[in-house]
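Whiteboard transcription, Tuesday session. T.W. wrote the structure tokens on the left side:
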């Protein structure tokens, strides 16, 4: 009997085990609802979720891929690309030390990233991108002025005003210009790293936006190994081609090998010819004035006359020793020396370098995109879609049908978007490439697997797909908590003999209704056994568990755990209503063969519902396997369905399940007996939900497609999860349920319930009177007739050992 605790949060039913003569252990589980404060914050009853500890190598890899590291590398990359040019455009020589220090910081960051990636990222070791990063990083070394000055032999020049140092600096400037022409090209390789980081960042943003929109990150199509390899190969070729062109093209210019003479050189030679002659002063003045206001003004002119006296003319605005070695031009003729300001050329070159860098960024990016676009559209993306769908099917084979439905809608939407808008004469034809055919085939196979194995077989399919190799049906099952429904078609043998080949259509038409409505109300079809169907409503692991004492505990934080039992009853009531009003089923009432054999023939069904644990898994061998649920509790559901004939009702519900119904839903049930099922010593209360279909008439044909039921299922989950409606509302708003219960009066229930009280307490003669009173109101009430028949076996005198329950064979 049900024991109601003083704690409103706890309802329990005793749990016992019994071993019958066959050795079969049958457990009637105890149902317990525990208040939320007894559970941890994660909703994992009786324990906590295990957290995976990252290894040191995984932590380093995670750090290298972190947003902080990527942003740091991107900033360093941008500085390395534009730092030299910005320094020349906007800063004087005095700021060189600061820029050199920043370049050293960039070198440290890049080498830090390269070394850690080399050690902790195996695919990176000795790869194309390793060498690319290494060369690009080494190309930063010339940007450090201290290193470059040492390399060019300027480190020992202490007197910045000496003409010897100016000559060395000018020669170094010419040499460094050619060096930097090549080095800067190599440095542009850093653009690839920048492109990859930006691409990764955009992917993360896309995932975050998808999660905000309610999509799961795993539903997004991830890049496949084939896609990564092809993208890498294309990127390599683009980089090599672009850099080769950039490096080789300057070599076809004459000024790459020698400097063309200028007026600085010609003029100084002419001035040297006039040295120590009349008119030299005038020629010197013209030479100076000609170059003084030029874009590249003269800064210094010095010479010695024949008497050994040195003469020097210098600019008052800028001193040559205040400029960088690549910003001056030194030329000499004999003992004449002139120095010119090349800042205009150097700054123009720096500005052009910035635009060239940006242009090459665009070329590399567009080149990589356009070269890979066709291969991605025709090969990579279809393969990635197939791989993603295989992964989804592996995790949840039941989702195959939903994916197929979504793909159909997506293709339809894409075809509607492709309109000519008057610019073309005819619609373009969609070409079904082999990849598309293969994708559709995978989906169809997934749908067939889902249909063939059902929800119980989802893990079998998933494990075999994920692990690869040969198919292995031999695996341990999973213990789950669920509600098991067994339904049976009455008079099936006679119907089969009369319908012959048509019996398949007969069964499938009924199955369409049964499976569709069960699916709508969050259940799943498992077995089709000729005239019977096994239907299951599974609790998820975080919704209900069975403890060491075989007690079923529901998680109070889960809405679904509490409304799911209520939906099992409404689904069966809806099935019964549909069978008695659907034109597809009602047509068999006029089938002459059936009427001759069974006058007044109607399609009738029996249902049994029970709650408990079971083992979900595969049964069979390498030749044939079936996904099913094994448990005494499944057998109880089957036994309840079989007992509906004894009580003359279409539906029997176990007391275990009844106790999990919400209180308003319990009002739709009637306690009709307490029995002990064969092989079980624990009394089991039996309930039914009364139905009368005499007033039902045929309705119009309605949509019974899978998509229709799935849409209804999604809507139902949404309103129940958001609390927009309760299961009580579903019952009250159902016209069918209201109609099938209208003929059951309060007077009838009062008489029957009093009869049940006398029956349970052993006062059978008093009970007989009450049951007969109930029969006067409803003369065909099956439970009243069944109990009167049972009590009449002992002339309405309860046995001495009577304890309120009887054995049900």
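and on the right, the sequence the group agreed on:
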């Amino acid at each position: 009997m049900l024991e109601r605790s003083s704690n409103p949060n706890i309802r329990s039913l005793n749990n016992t085990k019994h071993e019958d003569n066959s050795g079969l252990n049958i457990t009637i589980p105890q149902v317990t609802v525990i208040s939320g404060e007894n559970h941890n914050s994660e909703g994992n009853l009786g324990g906590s979720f295990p957290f995976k500890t990252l290894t040191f190598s995984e932590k380093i890899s995670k750090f290298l891929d972190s947003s902080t590291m990527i942003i740091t590398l991107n900033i360093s990359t941008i500085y390395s690309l534009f730092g030299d040019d910005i320094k020349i455009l906007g800063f004087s020589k005095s700021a060189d030390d600061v820029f050199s220090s920043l370049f050293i910081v960039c070198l440290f960051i890049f080498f830090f990233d390269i070394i850690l990636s080399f050690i902790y990222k195996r695919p990176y070791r000795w790869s194309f991108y390793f060498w690319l990063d290494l060369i690009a990083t080494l190309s930063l070394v010339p940007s450090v002025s201290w290193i470059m000055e040492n390399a060019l032999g300027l480190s020992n020049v202490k007197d910045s005003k000496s003409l010897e140092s100016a000559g060395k600096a000018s020669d170094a400037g010419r040499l460094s210009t050619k060096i930097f022409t090549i080095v800067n090209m190599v440095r542009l390789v850093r653009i690839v790293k920048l492109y990859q980081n930006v691409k990764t960042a955009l992917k993360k943003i896309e995932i975050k936006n998808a999660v905000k929109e309610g999509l799961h990150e795993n539903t997004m199509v991830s890049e496949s190994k084939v896609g990564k390899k092809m993208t890498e190969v294309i990127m390599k070729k683009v980089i090599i081609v672009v850099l080769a062109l950039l490096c080789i093209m300057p070599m076809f210019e004459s000024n790459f090998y020698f400097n063309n003479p200028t007026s600085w050189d010609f003029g100084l030679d002419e001035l040297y010819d006039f040295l120590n002659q009349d008119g030299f002063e005038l020629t010197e003045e013209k030479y100076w004035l000609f170059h003084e206001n030029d874009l590249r003004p003269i800064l210094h002119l010095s010479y010695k006359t024949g008497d050994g006296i040195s003469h020097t003319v210098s600019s008052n605005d800028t001193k040559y020793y205040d400029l960088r070695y690549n910003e001056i031009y030194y030329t000499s003729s004999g003992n004449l020396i002139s120095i010119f300001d090349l800042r205009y050329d150097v700054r123009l070159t720096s500005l052009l370098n910035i635009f060239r860098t940006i242009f090459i960024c665009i070329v590399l990016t567009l080149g990589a995109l356009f070269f890979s676009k066709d291969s991605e559209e025709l090969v990579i993306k279809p393969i990635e879609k197939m791989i993603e769908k295989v992964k989804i099917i592996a995790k949840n084979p039941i989702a195959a049908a939903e994916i197929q439905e979504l793909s159909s809608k997506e293709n339809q939407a894409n075809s509607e978007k492709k309109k000519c808008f008057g610019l073309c004469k005819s619609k373009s034809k969609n070409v079904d490439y082999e990849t598309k055919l293969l994708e559709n085939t995978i989906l169809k196979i997934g749908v067939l697997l889902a249909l063939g194995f059902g929800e119980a077989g989802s893990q079998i399919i998933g494990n075999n797909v994920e692990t690869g190799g040969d198919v292995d049906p031999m695996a341990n099952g999973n213990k789950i908590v669920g509600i098991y429904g067994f339904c049976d078609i009455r008079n099936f043998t006679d119907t089969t003999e009369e319908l012959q080949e048509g019996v398949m259509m007969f069964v499938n038409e009924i199955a369409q209704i049964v499976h569709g409505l069960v699916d709508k109300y969050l259940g799943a079809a498992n077995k089709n056994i000729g005239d019977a169907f096994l239907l299951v409503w599974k609790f998820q692991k975080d919704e209900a568990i069975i403890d060491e004492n075989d007690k079923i505990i529901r998680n109070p934080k889960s809405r679904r755990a509490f409304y799911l039992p209520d939906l099992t009853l409404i689904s069966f009531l809806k099935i019964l209503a549909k069978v008695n009003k659907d034109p597809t089923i009602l047509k068999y009432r006029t089938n002459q063969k059936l009427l001759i054999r069974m006058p007044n023939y109607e399609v009738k069904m029996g249902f049994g519902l029970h709650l408990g644990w079971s083992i979900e898994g595969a049964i069979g061998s390498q030749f044939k396997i079936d996904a099913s649920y094994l448990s005494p509790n499944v057998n109880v559901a089957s036994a309840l369905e079989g007992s509906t004939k004894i009580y003359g009702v279409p539906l029997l519900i176990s007391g275990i399940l009844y106790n999990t119904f919400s209180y308003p839903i319990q009002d739709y049930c009637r306690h009709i007996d307490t029995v002990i099922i064969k092989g079980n010593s624990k009394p089991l209360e039996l309930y039914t939900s009364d139905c009368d279909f005499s007033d039902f008439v045929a309705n119009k044909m309605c949509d019974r497609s899978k998509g229709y039921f799935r849409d209804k299922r999604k809507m139902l989950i949404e309103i129940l999860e958001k609390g927009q409606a309760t299961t009580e509302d579903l019952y009250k708003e159902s016209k069918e349920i209201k109609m099938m219960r209208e003929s059951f009066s309060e007077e009838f229930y009062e008489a029957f319930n009093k009869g049940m009280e006398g029956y349970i307490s052993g006062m059978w003669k008093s009970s007989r009177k009450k049951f007969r009173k109930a029969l006067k109101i409803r003369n065909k009430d099956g439970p009243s007739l069944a109990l009167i028949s049972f009590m009449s076996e002992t002339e309405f005198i309860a046995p001495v050992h009577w304890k309120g329950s009887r054995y049900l064979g």
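Someone added at the bottom: The radius of gyration is 44 Å.
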